[in-house]
Amino acid sequence: MKKIIIIVIVAAMGFSTQSFSQIKNVICNDADTLMSNSIYAGGLSSVNFSTNKLTSTNSYNLRVGAMSTWHVTKWANVKTYGMYGRSDSNDLVINSFSINLHQNRWNIEFGKMATSATEIRPLPVSANGHFETWTESQMPGGAIGAKIGYKAKFGSIKIGVASRENPEYSFHFKTKVKNNEMHLVGVLGGENENNYLTGLTHKTNKLYQVVVFKQQFNQETLINEQIAGYFGNYEISSKVKLNLYLDAGYNLTTEESPRLEVGLIKNFESKIFKGLIAIGYSHEIKAFKVYAFLHI
Description:
Layout: H1 2-13, E1 19-28, E2 34-50, E3 56-73, E4 76-87, E5 90-103, E6 106-113, H2 127-130, H3 134-137, E7 143-152, E8 155-164, E9 166-177, E10 180-189, E11 196-203, E12 207-218, E13 223-237, E14 242-251, E15 256-269, E16 274-282, E17 287-295
Parallel strand pairs: 1-17
Antiparallel strand pairs: 1-2, 2-3, 2-17, 3-4, 4-5, 5-6, 6-7, 7-8, 8-9, 9-10, 10-11, 11-12, 12-13, 13-14, 14-15, 15-16, 16-17
């Protein structure tokens, strides 16, 4: 079955080294009004050129998935998505199923889903989720739990609890001031009761940045490690569609840098295709990296 899925993806992508297709707002007109928000299929590949010796390595990542919402009543939705990915011979499956009850400014959601803090990450069933940065991936993933949210004039706030060996408590605050959109999250507990995390995203017309600081328990060293991360994407030229990016991390406990990559992203589009080409330098592997991205 896995081979069949991969063959279908490759056939759909055809000629590109990396591509994806995403169909949004696909509506099924039946008695239950089931709406499929998006259907995703894509592939990601990169080439690393070592600076220590004349060698190169290749990496690939294939992903398919879909996300649907069933509007049961005016105050109740059933949300679900499923994703299958294969990366360098390793399989990955991510799924979600939750019930969302909402009335006026309040909403309650429970099931296997994104926690309050997970919402700061891009959806796995999307191009941004497929091409997620190291800093973004430091945020917690989905889990079984519940969360309650409230919308106000100043923005929105959510608090929730999830199950990860130990209880995990989290909050998510969202606000927008003029052209500045900000998300702030915090996490306590989880896989280890001493774990904690704070994360922030900030977006303007030209700049998108993510900051994270966390303490996590290392199962190999049996010590609590403190890790900081930063990702920034700045638009150098809107006319040329050229961006500068930096994805960096530092382990304050071991005094090592698990991530340090800087580079340029060139976006492009035609009547049929959109995409980007990125070239960067990764200090942790001492190599130049080249990415290609095409989508319909």
